[in-house]
Every structure is written in C-alpha cells, then in structure tokens.
Amino acid sequence: MTTITNNKIAFIDGSRLITEACVQAGAEVFVGYPITPANLLYSYSNQRFPVMMAAPDEITTLQWMTGYSALGKLPVTATAFPGYALMIESINMAMMMELPMVIILVQRLGPATGTATSGAQGDINGVNGTISGGFKIPTFCISNLQDCWELTAKAVEAAVRLRTPVVLLSSKEMVMTQMSFDLSGLSNIEKVAWKMHEDTQEYKTYATDEQLIPAFLPVTQNKHQVRFTASTHDQSGILQNTSPEALNNSTRLKTKLDLHINAYLFYSYDAEKGAETIVFSFDITAQASREAVLLLRQEGHKVSLLIAKTLFPIPEIYPQILSNYKKIVVAEENLDGQYKHLLFGSHPGSHIKSVNAFGRMIQPEEIMEEVKNNG
Amino acid sequence: MDKNFLVDSKALPFCKGCTHTSVAQSTERALQKLGYDPLDVIFVTDIGCHGIIDKSLKSHTVHGLHGRSVALASGIAAGLAKDSGKKVIVFIGDGGATIGMQHLLVAAHHNFPMTVVVHNNMLYGMTGGQPSEFTPEGFNTPTSPNRSAMGAIDMVRLMEGVGAAYVSRISGIGDLSNELADAFAQPGFSLIEVMEICTSYGVKSNPGMKLRQVIESSGLQLSKHTNDRAEAPHQNFESFSSSLITEKLIITKEFEPIKKGTVRILLSGSAGEGIQSAAEFLAKTAMLSGLYATKKGHYPVTVGVGFSAAEVIISDEPIFYTGSTKPDFMVITSQDGLDYAMPRIKKSDRSTIILDQSLTLPETKSVIKLTDLRAKTGSRNAAMLSVFHLVRKFGILSEASLLTAYSRNKLSAKVPIETFLE
Questions:
Q1: Residue A293 has pLDDT above 50, yes or no
Q2: CB–CB of B329/B263 below 8 Å?
Q3: At what angle do helices A145-162 and A244-260 cross, to 10 degrees?
Q4: DSSP label at B72?
Q5: Which residues from B are below 8 Å from A361, CB to CB?
Q6: Is A223 on the interface with B (CB under 8 A)?
Q7: Domain contains A343
Q8: C-beta of residue B131 within 8 angstroms of C-beta of residue B123
Q9: Domain holding A80: CATH number?
Q10: Does B72 lie at the interface with A, CB-CB under 8 angstroms?
C-alpha cells in the first residue's frame, strides 16, 4: 500500500491553482462575465485579484482587458466557447495591438449552448482559427493539477514576454474536479516583468530589434507618444493600407512567435524502449491516457505516451516524435479528432487511430482497447 | 512644451466642409483652455471617417474595432491612478454608437472618467451612407431615400436614463471649444453629441436641407443635463489579498486505511440534499487515512432543482482518470438521483446499489440494498446520512476517521452527529 505520507496534501480543484498562479505570475486584473463551467475561476479571482471587474458581456470583457493592458496591467478572463466566440474579433484586435492578456477557455459540450455542465475538448479548431490570416496565438493546454500551476505561470509569462493574447485551454473536469494533491510540489512563481522602453530618445510603438518584440510603454506616461491600433500599421502605429513597412509589421506577428515559441514548448514524452505504439493526448483525456498506459504496461504491452501542452503554434517536435511509431492512438473528447486532423490532415493514414467521445469522458479502457486492437 | 494637439490643424484628413474638421480643431482649443499637455490625453477612436484623425494627433492614440472604442476606453479610464492627470477622450460616430450602444450605456452607468464625443452625422459615411439608429425622421440617406417614419434614438435621453453624470447635444456649427471644454472638464463620465451633416452623402440625399432644420424637425433638443454622481472608485492594483493556497487546505493522515485498492462511489440525488458537500466530506475523510481521493460533480444548469450527483474515487494508488462509469457503490437518495443513475444501474453487474426505501427497485444484475436515507434526517441531510451509512455498513473507512472528519465539518455545528448514527 502506497498511502500518502507527505503532510502537505490538500483537496483542491484546478481553478484555485490557476487563479493563484495567475496572480503570483503578475496578473493584476480579472475581467469576468459569468459562464459555466468557468465560474469557479470567476469566484476565486474575485477573492484574489487586486482588481476585479464584472463586465456586462464578453465583447466588453475583451475590450476592457485591452484597455487595462494598454496601461501595463496584465488582464485575465475565463470563459467557455459561447463567450469565446463573442471575444474573437477583440482577440484579433489585442493581438494586432500586441497587448498581452490571458484568456482561460474552459471547454464544455457544444455546439451552441450545448450542455453547459458537461466537459468536452471541442474547441480545438475554434482556437486554432481565432486569428484571421493564418496567425496563431500561443495556446497552452492543462493536463493535470501540476499544470494548473506551472503552465498557468508560463502562459502569463508568454503573454507578457511575447506581447500577445494567450489562450490557456482547459475543460470542465480539469478545472472543477477536486483531487488530493501535494502542495509541496508547487514551485515558486516569479512575477513577470514587462520589457519597457528605456531609451530617452525616439520611441515607436512597434519598432523592434532582432528579437522582433517591441518594447512597451503605457499610455499613461508623458515622455513618448504611444499609438496602439488594430489596423494594418507602420512601426509608429499609424494606419497604412498595404505599404511594405506595414505588411512587414503584420507578418512580424508570425515570425515573432516562430522565433520565440520554443521557449514555451511544453509537452510530456514518456517513451518506452521497443514500443511501436504511442498514445497521444492532451487536456482531461491526458489523465485517462496516463492511466491507460500504466495499465497496459502492467499487462506487458510496450507503449509510449505523448501529452501535448503547447497546442498552438503546433510544435514541430510532435510529428517528429510520432513519426517514430508504427501506430499512433490519438485520444480527444470530440467528434472525430480535431487535433488529429490538424496534425495529420483530413484523411490520416490507417496507422493513425482515433479514440473519441462526445458528451462524456473518454475512459482508459477505450484507449487500452485501441492500443491492443490489431486492426 | 508644445501645446499643439494637432500636427497641422489646417491639414486634417476630412472632406471639404465636414464638421469632423471643426470638432478636431475645437477639441484642440478646448484642451488648451483646460491646460492639458498633448501627452496627458489618450484619444480612443472608433471606426468611421472621424477615426482617421489618429495620424493628425500628437497625443496618445488607440484605434480599435467598430463600435467598441467606448469599451476599450473604459478599460483605460477605469484603471487610471487617482490624480493621474490624464484625460481619456473617445471619438465615435453615430454608426459606432449604434453598434456599441451598450458600451455607452455601461460606461455612463459606471461613471468611468472619460468623455465621449459622438460625431453624429446621421449615417454611415465611410461605407456609402447607410442609415444608423440615429438617423432622424425625415432625413434621407443614399440607401434609405424614404426612410422617415421611425425617427432617431435620442441619445441624450438614453444617457439620462442610465444616470450619466453629464450629457449634452450641440449643433456642429462654428467654434465648439467652449462646449467641448465643458464636457472635458467633468471629473466623471461625459458625453457630447455633435450634430453634423455628412457633406458627401447627407447633403446629396437631402438637397437644400440645413442642419438647423434637421434638428428642429427631428424633435431632438439641443440641451445639457448633469447628474451629481460620485466618482467611480479608483482601483488599487496593490491591494493583494492573501494566497488561495494556504495551510488550512492541508489534510494530514491521522488514521490507517482499512481497505486496500480502489473504491468508486456514485452519490446520486436531488439538488438541495447536500450531495456535493457530502461527496467532498467523504473524499476528505478518506484523506484522513492517507488515501488518494477525487470528487467530480454532475448537475444540470439549473440551480436548486433537478438531479445532483457526484463521483468519488478513493484509492491507495494515485488516481489519474477521475470518471467512474462502473462504480462499486451507487447511493441513490431520490427519484431524480435514480433517473440520473439509471443507465449505469442497468449496465452494472458488480455494483452495490444503496437505495432509499421510498424508491421503486430498478432492474439490475447488481445487489440492491434498501434503506432509509431520507425519512430520519429529512431531505436536506439525506446525502450526509448516505455517506455515514456507506462508510459504516460497508467498512470503506474507519469509524474513527468518520467521526473526526465530521467534527471538523461545518455541518456539525448545526446537526449533531447522533443524527447520522443509527
């Protein structure tokens, strides 16, 4: 019997850890509009954040957040897809303005209002397609309570350092289910500092060095003029149509991520020597996958496990790892495997197997069965 | 310091004769009268002809989405430090005010410290002259040559309705700087609606019609209304409360577990029976014996009615998957709970089903135990009674751990433990 002997065990839900990690990493304002199943995040944030704003809808939420971000105050919100859908144009705006923020998206069963109290992993395509033109926003996906802490802090850091909205993706059971959890494993989180413009000379809001990330100045200082704009703009933040400088500035938003995303590459790869099969998963189904792989190995099967935590931009390492296996079992709680299709196209090869569920959690037994299936 | 707010007040990017030009020039004069420096002012501009003013301004500029400028400015204004000396000004058109009408109402309602200047030229000028909700009766546009019956929404009355601290409507003829300065000088929210005629579309669609005529025939009054409002409280970004992760959350092992392996339990009943709290209590009781525990809730979106169910897993091994499709025990306290659990009851063949004696026996291959889960304690404590029954009758955890856990549960202050000890 391996009962817990450590004396820092708490009975805790993910929302509590996420909220605390946000604040410790430097988030200062939570703007919220209530929606199931993100309401725990709202109520914890109401307790914990220095400033809490109850917005009248999700469009306003994102607009207020962008206003705070223009002051240098890092905003956070939590929502589900119906709210996220309303936010999308404003997320495009904040991305174009390069104003950081964290949007916690708690997936629930759709389409439309669907079943608010049932979990899902159905928003992968939605998040992937958030930004018009093929741009991405960094998207991190929580796979257990430890991630609620560490990955949340990294999400805040990525937002501030890369000056971009970031999505922290999760789902109902991941943020609401309570679990015994060892608090002594929580690492220290340092507050993330904004990279400020320090020269006394010229300042252009969107001028960058080779790191491609502009230095920040809030609209409250009176040394340099600051211009934030959602329209195609030059380095000064002045609207331009399609001048080379302005188009270069827009495409920089992609190359900026390309250059830096490897600093925010998070995944867990548990490779078994001699395994020809790998289970690939993320979010709440990562937990069923972990259990399935554990049980399969106890039964003598050789199987590896890859849990994705950085979802977008899709890291190159995932297809590289997966290409080493003859059989790939992708487990995700949606109709037919949204992330699978993003990785392998609309008609994946026959060695790509899918375990999906709609309106319920995927069980470890289903993953085990697919791994053992010779077909 | 340079006190000019406009790069060149004679070279503004608007059509010849457009009132947007005089709004911009008058804004500069108004801010100069009030003693602001250009970088004390944050202009938030909307989409529409007026929004191309940004490049002509020497102040900070923020240019967002159509109709959302007031909400964007609200975030900036709400977060300004006390005595910041900054002034937030929104430039928006009647089209933007239409699409973002709620943002205007909310900003006025909150009394965010900012001024909204509505350039009301009574149509969408940038897209070909379509009507907005502020197109007045008798005023034609290219796409609504006979649109006259409905009339315009009266923005001033709308603002008054939500308690705006300051709202005025002025005619956009001549120098507007005194009226604008009056609005800018307000400590809280102010809105000033400037009536204009679009030289490109308004004039062509209404030959010979003068702005004064439009205002008079529309019934819109040129007026000013103030409301003595308290300033919105300034936000303190240093007001951190204590951590959500505290020692109070820690549950230390005090007892020995009495069962090996994993036990999966489904508690299923009705809202109001304390199902979720009892399930949490059960999990925490297990943790007193050093066991791993999880608790997952199920309920409809309604609060206070319908089913309420919780899955609890107790194990001497770490738990990854927190679902429980084949529970070892299903404890059913009510008909709602029975209905919810029925698919699992039908499928199960190795569960023990503990059912309140008032319920009809379901068809199943599992063992059913009928007992009183409600009559003695009432429905409010049915779930807690169920947990006591489960733990004691089936020896899932030690009695001592159960009694200790209850003594620390807030329910113990209201309901004596004897209630649950048959």
A1: yes
A2: yes
A3: 150
A4: H
A5: 321, 323
A6: yes
A7: yes
A8: yes
A9: 3.40.50.970
A10: yes
pLDDT band for position A3 (50/70/90)?
A: very low
Rounded-to-integer distance, Cα B184 and Cα B405, Å: 61
Identify whether residues A156 and A285 lie together within a single domain.
no
Whether A177 and A310 map to the same domain: the answer is no
Inter-chain CB proximity B251 and A180 less than 8 Å: yes
- Token pair for B132: 């907005």
Supply the mean pLDDT for chain A: 96
- For residues A135 and A279, state if they share a domain: no
Q: Is A209 part of any domain?
A: no
**Of the partner residues B76, B250, B300, the one whose CB lies closest to the CB of residue A7:** B250
Give me the domains of chain B, ranges plus CATH numbers. 19-226 (3.40.50.970), 247-420 (3.40.920.10)
Does residue A270 share a domain with residue A174?
A: no
Instruction: Measure in Å the smallest separation between the Cα of B204 and chain A Cα atoms.
Output: 28
The answer to whether residue A298 neighbours chain B at the CB level (below 8 Å) is: no
Q: Are residues A14 and A154 in the same domain?
A: yes
CATH of the domain at A286: 3.40.50.920
Residues A175 and A282 in one domain: no
For residue A90, pLDDT over 60 is answered with: yes
Contact B356, B275 (CB under 8 A): no
**Between A and B, how many residue pairs show a Cβ–Cβ distance under 8 A?**
239
| A56/B75 CB distance under 8 A | no
When scoring A13, A46, A68, A71 by the number of chain B Cβ atoms within 10 A, the one with the most, hence best to mutate, is A71
Q: What is the ipTM of this complex?
A: 0.96
In a domain, residue A228? The reply is no
**Burial of residue A194 (number of CB atoms within 10 Å: 0-12, 13-18, 19+):** middle
Domain C-terminal end among A185, A209, A239: A185
Q: Residue A71: how many CA atoms within 13 Å on its side-chain side?
A: 26
Has residue A100 been placed in a domain?
Answer: yes
A139-141 and A310-312 as β-strands: parallel, antiparallel, unpaired?
antiparallel
Q: What is the pLDDT of residues A211-248, one digit of tens each?
A: 999 999 999 999 999 999 999 999 999 999 899 999 99
Confidence of residue B2 (pLDDT cuts 50, 70, 90): confident
| Domain span including residue A15 | 10-185
Is pLDDT at B1 greater than 70 in this prediction? no
Per the structure, how many domains does chain A have?
2
Beta carbons of B290 and A3 less than 8 Å apart: yes
Minimum-distance CB partner of A287 among B239, B289, B320: B320
pLDDT in tens, B394-412: 999 999 999 999 999 999 9
Which residues between 19 and 48 in chain A have a beta carbon less than 8 angstroms from any beta carbon of chain B?
19-20, 23, 28-29, 31, 36, 44, 47-48
* Mutation target vs B (from A5, A170, A222; most B CBs, 10 A cutoff): A222
User: pLDDT tens digit string along A122-152?
Assistant: 999 999 999 999 999 999 999 999 999 999 9
Q: 3-state class of B263 per DSSP?
A: strand
Q: Is B261 buried (19+), middle (13-18) or exposed (0-12) by CB count in 10 A?
A: exposed
Q: How confident is the model at residue B145, as a pLDDT?
A: 86
Domain-ending residue, one of A161, A185, A209? A185
Smallest CA–CA distance from B310 into chain A, residue? A177
Which residues between 324 and 353 in chain B have a beta carbon less than 8 angstroms from any beta carbon of chain A?
325
- The band of B147, judged by pLDDT with boundaries at 50, 70 and 90, is low
